[in-house]
Amino acid sequence: MAxxxxxxxxxxxxxxxxxxxxxxxxAAAEQFRGAFAPDSEGGQDPDGGSGxxxxxxxxxxxxxxxxxxxxxxxxxxxxxxxxxxxxVEVARDHRRAGVGSELLRRLRAAAAAAPSWxxxxxxxxxxxxxxxxxxxxxxxxxxxxxAAARGFGELQRSRHVVVRPGALRLSALGDGSQGSESxxxxxxxxxxxxxxxxxxxxxxxxxxxxxxxxxxxVGRAQQLFLSDAAGAHGAVVLREPPASAFGSGVAxxxxxxxxxxxxxxxxxxxxxxxxxxxxxxxxEPRLSxxxxxxxxxxxxxLIAYQHPVRLEVDDAMTALTAVVGPLVAAGSAEAGPxxxxxxD
Length: 344
Description:
It comes from Sinomonas halotolerans. This is GNAT family N-acetyltransferase. There is one protein chain. The chain is α+β, with helices and mostly antiparallel strands. Helix 5 crosses helix 6 and helix 7 packs across helix 8. About 6% of the residues have low confidence. The two termini are 31 Å apart. Strands 1, 2, 3, 4, 5, 6, 7, 8, 9, 10, 11, 12 and 13 form a 13-stranded mixed sheet that branches. It folds into two domains: 142 residues, Aminopeptidase (3-Layer(aba) Sandwich), CATH 3.40.630.30; 185 residues, Aminopeptidase (3-Layer(aba) Sandwich), CATH 3.40.630. It is built from eight helices and 13 strands. The longest helix has 15 residues.
C-alpha cells in the first residue's frame, strides 16, 4: 500500500467514501457519518449559547493515490461540553495499517486548538488542557477494541428496547375502582408545559451525571426534547393524588405533583399498526428509587397497553432498567445491540 496523504474534508467526499466503506456498521456509525462535513468554526451567542452554526468541527480525510479511503471528525457538543465527539472510519482493506491511529492523532492535535467555548468543564473556565474526547461504538466490535487500545474507557452502555403490547399489567391508579386508562392521575400534557419541561430537564441532567450536560433551563429543555423541531408528538404524565392547600380535611384544590412522563416522537408514516412508537420515558428525580421504579412501571404499562413502544435505555436510568430488564429476560420485550459511550 502506497503512503497515504491527509487533507481536510471537501464537498463530495461522502459520496466517494460510501462507495469504499459500504453500509454503516451499526446505528452509531450511521449517525457519525452524518457529522462528516467541511471544517466549521461554529460560534457563540452573547447569552452563552451556540451560534447559528453552533458546532466547532475539524474533519480529516486519508487518500490512497488520490482516492479517499478513511476519514475522521472531531466536533463540539453544546449540550455536553466536557468532551468533544470524535469518530474515525477506515475502509476494511486499509485497517490494521495505522491509518485509524494517524487520523486520531490528527484529531487530537486539532482538538487541542479548539476554542474555549467549544469544550470546558460545566461551570468552569477552559484551563488550557487538551480537551477530552468521547465516541460511541458497538459493544464487542472492532471500534470498541480500537478505542480501548488507545486509552478510551467505558462511560456508559445503552440499548434500544421494544416493549410489546400488554407486557405489563395495568395498575389501578387513583381511587382503586378505576383502571389506569381513566385515572385522574394520568394526564395528556402539552409539550409546551413549563412543568413538563422542568422535570424533563432535571431528569436528563440526573441520568447523564457521567457526562454532565450544560445547564438545562426550562426553555432549553423544551427546545431540545419537547419542541416540534425535536419531533415531539405528544406527552402523557403520571401524577401523585390531588393535593389540598388547606389540609387533608378539605377537598383537593390543585393537581398532584408530576411523578413520571412519557414523550412520544413522530416517526416515518407507516401503515403497520405494530410499528413501535419512539418514547422518552422518565420520572421526577426527587422520587426515591422505589417510588421512581413504581412510577415508571405504571406509566410504561399504560403507554404499552395496546401498542409497542421503543425506548432508549441507558444503564444510568436505573428505574427504567429495573423495569425493562425483567421484561427482556421474560421475552416480553426485545433488546437491540448494546452500544458503549467511551471517553478518555
